[in-house]
């Protein structure tokens, strides 16, 4: 496992940059796919561990982006300080979502969707601060560090890759902890876990905060990559839907599945399906996803993991 | 000491439990009996925090638990099982107990978990999936084992013997008696089988229409004509 991890890290940090350096188009696509990957891990953490299906992760993405952009442009904070502050802003916003934790299933999903919409309206209406529907432009990009330009495509790739891997590590650590075991136990038997002393509301709150922080952080990073924000973009429902699609495609019950799912579907959609159908290529993506749900509902990661076992079974 | 003071539970216009008061020590095994719909499980839910009483108080070892959240009851030494076993899905038997011990007793002690699993005859099932690979009798034992892992002073057992065949029931009853004596755990048990209640319990409280109909030793209570009429739904010869 450790050997595979070293090979993967070498591939991500050395081989990919060497192969793609200079190919800004592919690097841009990779950065975009990793942004979706970060959102997918954030969503899966809340969905898989917290047991809460969110349709409103765009709220965290948008809040993180706006908070970071405003902290830099209005208060003059350094970009690398403002980005984590964007994550913190998303956590603060998620405090207002705590009452929704008492809801479950579709009721929770709809409540979070409503919260996301409220934040979009706030971003539009507080025009003196946010620029209203016209948005914010000229948001400073990522800085140079040790002479390396992080705002270049390659620099952005390294930053977002590191963020996504850190998210996966945090997700894995929580999942393997006693808290992760208790969270998994809560899914189908919340009363049974509460009766043995598990404070389910507190655990779910923490998952919401961690998930919000991840979403806010990625949103903040994105704001400094594209250098522009407006409410329709920052709070777009795509930031809620794409992570769900990616997480389900990759396997939302696995640690790396959501991130891998995001990169695979984003790149395949942009590089293959878009070539086949320049407009409406999402139709093919939808068909692939439907097939995935029907024939491999546990996602891509579980599909690969099952193969050796099936092969062994076939020989016994 | 568990003390109920005028506990009342209402669901809309229906009073499911009305002014129920009694006390029991951790040195007792108390049987809570009564016909279906008498309010036994509702009273359990009120004690364990699944429903909030509309009136009255639930005290345990001098602490008023009435308004305390469900999860905190385990921290005060009050455990419970469910009539329909509720194993924690996705988890093995050991993990079920680990969650209960970690969050209920606030510690992780694998040796103690092994003891509990052996005591409840679950030692061989430790790594099996609790929700999908256990038979009913094993699930019932897991319910008790989970509650034991929280290191309770008092256990509320909701029809934990229901559905078991005669030998299984006798074996389980002996295990509960042993648990009460060895670990000094008080037991409040809902059970329909009079023979089991008589052999297991020091004391019996009979509920009927949400109110206490009788309270005393099993012999005295099961000879009470009022109890026979209400509990069996028939005459004195029932």
Detailed description of the structure:
The complex is a heterodimer of chains A (316) and B (238). Chain A is mostly helical and 316 residues long. Chain A has a domain at 24-241. In chain A, 75% of the residues lie in helices and 3% in strands. Chain A has helices spanning 2-20, 24-49, 58-73, 79-95, 105-125, 127-130, 153-176, 178-186, 190-194, 200-226, 231-234, 238-250, 257-276, 282-295, 299-315; strands at 136-137, 144-145, 148-149, 228-229. Chain A has a two-stranded antiparallel ribbon with strand order 1-4. Chain A is globular, with a radius of gyration of 20 Å. The two termini of chain A are 25 Å apart. The model of chain A has no long low-confidence stretch (mean pLDDT 89). With 238 residues, chain B is an alpha/beta fold. Chain B has a domain at 1-77 and 153-160 and 186-238: P-loop containing nucleotide triphosphate hydrolases (Rossmann fold). Chain B is built from 9 helices and 10 strands. In chain B, the strands form 2 sheets. A 6-stranded mixed beta sheet of chain B has the order 6-7-8-3-9-10, sandwiched between helices. Chain B has a 4-stranded antiparallel beta sheet with strand order 2-1-4-5, with helices on one face. In chain B, strand 9 and strand 10 form a beta hairpin. The longest helix of chain B has 18 residues, at 166-183. Chain B is globular. The N and C termini of chain B lie far apart (35 Å). Chain A binds chain B through residues 178, 181-182, 184-189, 191-200, and chain B through 48, 50, 69-75, 79-80, 82, 86-91, 95-96, 98-100, 102-106, 108, 131, 146-147, 149-150.
Provide the structure class of chain A: mainly alpha
Low-confidence stretches of chain A: none
Average pLDDT of chain A, rounded to a whole number, is 89
Task: Tell me the fraction of residues in β-strands of chain B, as a range.
Answer: 15-25%
The backbone outline of chain B, from C-alpha atoms, is globular
Assembly state (oligomeric)? heterodimer
Total strands of chain B: the figure is 10
**CATH fold name of the domain at 1-77 and 153-160 and 186-238 in chain B:** Rossmann fold
**Number of H/I helices of chain B:** 9
Q: Measured on Cα atoms, how large is the radius of gyration of chain B?
A: 17 Å
Assign the CATH architecture of the domain at 1-77 and 153-160 and 186-238 in chain B. 3-Layer(aba) Sandwich
Main structural class of chain B:
alpha/beta
Helix and strand element order of chain A:
HHHHHHEEEHHHHEHHHHH
